[in-house]
Design goal:
By secondary structure, the protein is of the alpha/beta class. It is built from 5 helices and 9 strands, in the order ββαβαβαβαβαβββ. Strands 5-4-3-6-7-9-8 form a 7-stranded mixed sheet, with helices on both faces. The mean pLDDT is 93.
Length: 186
């Protein structure tokens, strides 16, 4: 059964993001999305966001609805990308940039910097820690930018010292955090 995700706030409030049945899709729950966007509401207007491992695109689309100037979506699965493109088209979003790529490869080559990065990768292969290392090494987060991390509850990660932990919450299965990047603290 396909799941429908309702956009919580902004100019697309109440609109639906259609998802597909796919073993690699784990859309962020409404409760967690609402908490996250309450945490970052003042940073969103006019921000450039990166929705890495975008899946359904619910985080990036919610950011656009709340007046982010642009969101770049990274996803490697063709079927998931096709569904994401359908949702972007149906919702008439014109400030989304969808890239069919392996997130780790793309970050290694990226010359862009973002105000907000959503980091909710698959729960395998230590991909989260690898991504954190690459984001830091390639400086794709701007100074004073936010990094949102969502992971399985018992996952252990190590973040750079200049990423300051602002928020830290749990559900029964999920651990989610918000960091602020302060490069001058190195």
């Amino acid at each position: 059964m396909n799941k429908k995700i309702k956009i919580i706030s902004g100019y697309l409030k109440g609109q639906i993001i259609q998802t597909i049945n796919h073993r690699n899709l784990r859309p962020t729950t409404n409760r967690i999305r609402e908490t996250l966007f309450n945490w970052i509401f003042n940073k969103l207007p006019f921000s450039k966001c990166l929705d890495s491992f975008s899946g359904s695109g619910s985080l990036g689309i919610e950011a656009i609805s709340r007046y982010a100037i642009q969101t770049t979506f990274l996803e490697k699965n063709r079927i998931i990308i096709k569904n994401l493109k359908k949702n972007i088209f149906r919702l008439r979003i014109n400030n989304a940039h969808i890239i069919h790529t392996n997130t780790l490869v793309w970050i290694k080559k990226s010359i862009y910097q973002y105000d907000i990065i959503f980091l909710d990768p698959p729960y395998y292969d230590n991909i989260l820690q690898k991504t954190i290392i690459l984001i830091n090494k390639n400086k794709i987060i701007k100074n004073n930018g936010y990094i949102y991390i969502e992971m399985q509850r018992n996952t252990k990660i190590q973040c750079p010292k200049h990423w300051l932990l602002l928020k830290d919450k749990y559900t029964s299965n999920i651990h989610y955090q918000l960091y602020l990047c302060k490069y001058q603290l190195k």
